[in-house]
Amino acid sequence: MENCIKLSIYVPVGDVVPDGFAACTPEETAMVIRAGYSALMAAKSGLREYGQEELAESIRTELRQKHDNVVGEMGAKLDKTERELVVQKELYKTMCGDLEERIESQVARRLSAMCVEREQLHAEILRLREGQKAAGGEIAEQAIKLVHGDLENMRAMLSEKDKQTETLKTMFEKAVDKIDTITQKRAVVSIGKMGEHQFKDLAEKAFRDFEGFELVDVHSVGGQGDFHLKFRDFSVLADSKLYSHKVNSTSRDKIKRDLKKNEHMHFAWLVSLDTTIDKFDKAPFMFEWLSEKKCVCYVNQLMKYEEPSEMLRAVWFACKTLHSIMMDGDSEVEMGKLRERELKVREIAQKLVKNGRERETLMTQFRTNFDKNDELIRDILDGETNALVNESFGQVVTWWNSHVEVGEGESIKSTVLWNQFKKDCGDVENIDASGFKQVLCSFLHESKVVKPKTKGGALEIVGYRIKSV
Q1: Residue-wise pLDDT tens digits, 38-68
Q2: d(CA 315, CA 312)
Q3: Which of 57, 80, 100 is the last residue of a domain?
Q4: Which domain holds residue 295?
């Protein structure tokens, strides 16, 4: 209607506008006006030649014909428009029907796919439960086999009491050396330094092959944590704790303040090496969001795992996923999904922790049983050794004093002494070669005895010789 103008037309009161005139388009209205005006002008010019009555009749006839023609054209166009409208209605109904069928077909396919996926997931859950039961049976069977194997080893140890005595003596000396070493280290290095060194070694081992990785020691700078772990995409503020009790809220509040202070960092790790972290001990590692761009990760009992470095890698991959979501425009939606997944992972992790505690309880019982068996074996060995010494010690010492003398610069093997002892004392039933060597070691000075490289080898006695007859 932008290319049209509005006209006001006056007609006599008695005249009636033809039917359908109001439905004419602007183009049709203009055509009617031009045709009527042309007819009127022609009629006026013809009045001069014809009579008034004939002219009027002629005009009426011509106007009536033109009116009929226009009405016929309008009716034809109206019929055509009605037919097109009917066709469009039928086409619309057909399109709506096709669309509904397609939608119903798509919904049916999706429902079918979801049902199939649901059945597959249900079957997978059943398979995992069966696998868990089978794994539990295998673990119990392996534990029983280990117990039987240890019992067999203990029986073998009883049959070789001389070797066991030597082994226990060596183990005792090593234990004493180890205790001395640990005591010296704890006197020199504080507990905090030990925790920092342990975490530093683990981090360097875990991320040594990561592109762009750099570990910066900042423990001497206030408000920076212990370390800054720099990766290619992001950096982490890390703080390690080597406590004998739970890490309390004071440490958690401190690392939160440090993370907020370092605006360029999005993540902080509070790593407890031996104990758990209060209120965040339901899983191996848990997250706490301070804002949309700040997140603290709490790692529990890192040194309790068989591969602590692999646990650190897992924490890094989780933080990398969170960092990617932070940088994405759809972070809120993805973060919601991630939190839902975190809840599921936390539930699974809680079950794993429960199974681990049950396994630890079982292993503790096994260790207690092994310790009791070791104590019984030591009692048996001590009794056998004491009885052996009491029976043969005096006999060997008496023979030694009467048949061996000091010889400067000379040495003699224990095998030669043993053969001479049997020859001089006859059949000896209460002592063997191993017991003979033990008696020699008990009364001779250490500087006079050179022990063999192997357990079954002969001793070398320095500074003595057999008396000549």
Answers
A1: 877 876 776 555 556 676 777 788 888 888 8
A2: 5
A3: 100
A4: 190-327
